[in-house]
Write a structure and sequence with these properties.
By secondary structure, this protein is of the alpha/beta class. It is built from 29 helices and 22 strands. The structure holds a DNA duplex.
Length: 723
DNA sequence: AGGTCCGCTATTTTT
DNA sequence: TAGCGGACCT
């Protein structure tokens, strides 16, 4: 078989990684060095050259998106869908294992995955049931406590006994929460991994089964793995599997949520792998890479890596100092406008920032200029309140014992089941040792409710039972549609929320029905005997999904530095380069956290392909208060010869101290009026529909015959008047 | 039971 | 400045 296509486009280091014989491999893959490529080709190489069965391969990624991409690329390279190949996130893979061996780990077949919100609510419930002071034990904090310990593989009994009563109570909350989950068949995200770890550790048959199966384990983004994930890798691998680990210690930016960069060096120590560095970069100009290298060089304890390129030097990195955050946004948007006028696409431009709150000013400015944009992050589809409400009904239809679902929807829409009534149901459930639904049913049957509450509860129970009865043989789409209609959520939102808000919720519910109708059950789920409904519920929890509207329009991309990881854009702005904001105040005290901020800066810079700007403001409103800010220390770490002050400080002071030069004088009036017909080199012929400003800032909006409506700055656009 | 108002807090996010 | 949660009022 001809396998040259697996190697021909690879550089030496990439090829070495793809073809490595024997032993383990650690690929230190710099930004833009083609690591996904290496992983994909490695998988194809193993299958086609070493004739490894796809069944014997396990590939682990960090996000579902990455998993999907890798699956698609492997399929494309092999020219077929590799059946039996496991590609997924740690959570997805563990979920699959637990579904197959639910009985082995003491879980019911119908176990339900708790997403973070479900978990939060349940923990709050537990704290209230324990009659603790919620000020002293905030549910958020307890959630952090529990997840932190689980991520380190610790059960309540593994936590060192403290003489500190506060810590003891925290452990008690953890234990009670866990007991609740056990009784109700609920599994949170960390539990998926921990439970799987325990299964493979304590059950010799299962351990042997998976160790025999997976001869090769490939892991992406290893610098983002936590302690539990590393332990899991070691358990599955045993001493037979060959590990192929890809990571970049310089791009570790999730330490704050338990990721251990040290896993990379630990792996090098524990498994003695062949270490291969991918340092040739195919993304950025030499200028950008040199600057990024210089910044990251200020970190200690690196494994060491220097990105280089065969490409051109490129333009200097623009540094802009704005008076205010507003002016910063104006500058950025003006540069984006230039980009567009020079023929660039909006989607090629990305504005990156440290915290989400910063997006507002950019949005405002882009909106004012009529440039389309898209803000990343924010609420994901399956996390929206209306979706979770509808899914709550669905979950109860699937499994009456799903208490979090019961709590969520028992009085949504309001049907007169108040806190007192629910408390009575909880109490009954606790003493009888049943679920809330069962307790409510028993109380209805024994007439334990007052008349009004009783009717309301009976009505609710009937809605669920009736939905189940009516839809036994229905498709998932029909069931979903019946749920949305019967629960009548749309009316509820319309009645108590702003019309546009309600409308958007309604649209989302319609979208949810469509998602159910078009749901394509994964083959493996079907094989492990899951119903489509169970699959759908699991997927909703496991992949909350982008599902955001206006998918692939040509939009300027606004996102945090964190969400930019893995992406690339020709034109990039790193905004808010200010002490206290970036590096963030909370990260400046400890050196370890500062290093992570610096890595974040490195990640941000290396997103840029052609043009990079770093901008900051000298004053900014934060938490409703305007304060003076100072340039980020990271700016000082850039080599001066690679940067260019876009508007040097001196010029600004000159402008004011000399009483303003000609700059602020109104320029000569232009002769473009509303209705003028004009011609543009690239956009063709159009009509002026709007005129704004004067002098060098004058802008006109033109309705082009073919290119649509655009705002153009006259001093750049080079318009010709035709009439 | 349910709606309104006030006060507190305030990175980063995937599963 | 804005969003969320709890206390308070109807």
């Amino acid at each position: 078989m001809d396998v040259s296509h697996l190697l021909e486009d690879l550089n030496d280091a990439q090829r070495e990684a793809v073809t490595a014989e024997d032993g383990h491999v650690l690929v230190l893959a710099g930004a833009g060095s083609g690591k996904t490529r290496v992983l994909v080709h490695r998988i194809a190489w193993l299958i086609q050259v070493h004739h490894v069965s796809p069944m014997g391969l396990l590939a682990v990624t960090f996000t579902n998106k990455a998993a999907g991409e890798m699956r698609a690329r492997v399929g494309k390279l092999l020219g077929l869908r590799p059946d039996g190949l496991w590609i997924g996130t740690f959570h997805g893979i563990c979920h699959r294992i637990l579904r197959m061996h639910a009985a082995d780990v003491g879980l019911p077949e119908t176990f339900q995955i708790l997403d973070s919100e479900d978990q939060y609510r349940l923990i709050r419930r537990v704290i209230r049931d324990m009659e603790l002071d919620e000020g002293e034990y905030p549910a958020r904090q307890q959630q952090g406590f529990i997840n932190h310990h689980k991520d380190e593989g610790r059960r309540p009994e593994h936590i060192e006994p403290f003489d500190n009563p506060h810590a003891l109570t925290q452990v008690a909350i953890y234990r009670n929460y866990q007991d609740y989950c056990e009784r109700s068949g609920l599994v949170d995200f960390a539990e998926l991994l921990l439970r799987t770890l325990e299964l493979l550790r304590d059950n010799p048959a299962r351990q042997a089964q998976y160790r025999d199966r997976f001869g090769h384990i490939l892991i992406d983004e290893f610098q983002d793995t936590n302690k539990l994930q590393y332990a899991l890798v070691r358990i599955i691998a045993g001493d037979r599997a060959r590990l192929f680990v890809v990571g970049d210690d310089d791009q570790s930016i999730y330490g704050w949520r338990g990721a251990r960069v040290e896993n990379v060096s630990d792996f090098a120590r524990d498994f003695d792998p062949t270490v291969i560095r991918l340092e040739q970069n195919y993304r950025s100009t030499a200028t950008i890479l040199e600057a990024a290298n210089r910044v990251i060089a200020n970190n200690e304890e690196r494994m060491g890596k220097n990105l280089w390129t065969e490409g051109e030097q490129g333009e200097p990195i623009g540094i802009f100092s704005a008076f205010s955050a507003e002016e910063e946004a104006e500058f950025v948007v003006a540069r984006i406008r230039d980009w567009l006028e020079q023929g660039g696409a909006a989607s090629e431009a990305a504005v990156l920032y440290r915290s989400n709150a910063q997006s507002r000013l950019f949005e405002h400015q882009l909106l004012a200029e009529g440039i389309p944009y898209r803000v990343y992050g924010g609420q994901r589809f399956f996390e929206r309140a209306e979706i979770k409400d509808a899914m709550g009904y669905l979950r109860l239809v699937h499994n009456r014992d799903d208490d979090p679902a019961f709590e969520r929807v028992v009085n949504v829409p309001a049907r007169g089941i108040g806190e007192r009534t629910v408390a009575a149901i909880r109490e009954h459930a606790r003493s009888a040792g049943t679920s809330l639904f069962a307790a409510a049913t028993a109380m209805r049957d024994s007439g334990a409710f007052a008349a009004r509450a009783g009717n309301a509860v009976a009505q609710f129970l009937e809605i669920i039972n009736d939905l189940d009865r009516r839809t036994r043989d229905a498709s998932l789409g029909e069931l979903m549609s019946a749920v949305v209609e019967t629960a009548d959520l749309a009316r509820w939102y319309r009645q108590r929320e702003a019309p546009d808000r309600a409308e958007s919720r309604e649209e989302n519910l319609t979208e949810l029905i469509r998602a159910a109708e078009t749901f394509d059950q994964p083959l493996e789920d079907e094989q492990s005997g899951l119903s489509p409904l169970a699959s759908f519920l699991a997927q909703a929890a496991l992949e909350a999904g982008e599902h955001q509207g206006e998918k692939w329009q040509d939009c300027v991309q606004l996102m945090t530095l964190h969400s930019a990881k893995g992406l690339e854009f020709p034109l990039v702005f790193l905004s808010g380069m200010e002490e206290g904001l970036f590096p963030h105040q909370k990260s400046t005290e400890e050196p370890g956290r500062l290093s992570e901020e610096r890595r974040l800066c490195y990640v941000g810079m290396t997103r840029a392909m052609q043009r990079l700007y770093l901008t900051y403001a000298e004053s900014r409103m934060l938490h409703g208060q305007t304060s003076t800010t100072y340039p980020s220390r990271f700016l000082d770490e850039l080599p001066e010869e690679l940067t260019e002050q876009v508007r040097p400080r001196a010029a600004r002071y000159a402008g004011t101290s000399f009483g303003g030069g000609g700059m602020s004088q109104p320029g000569p009036e232009h002769d473009f009026n509303l209705g003028s017909t004009v011609s543009h080199e690239r956009f063709g012929i159009g009509t002026v529909v709007n005129v704004e400003g004067s002098g060098p800032n004058a802008r006109v909006q033109i309705n082009f015959e073919t290119a649509g409506q655009k705002w153009l700055v006259l001093s750049y656009a080079n318009l010709e008047r035709l009439d």
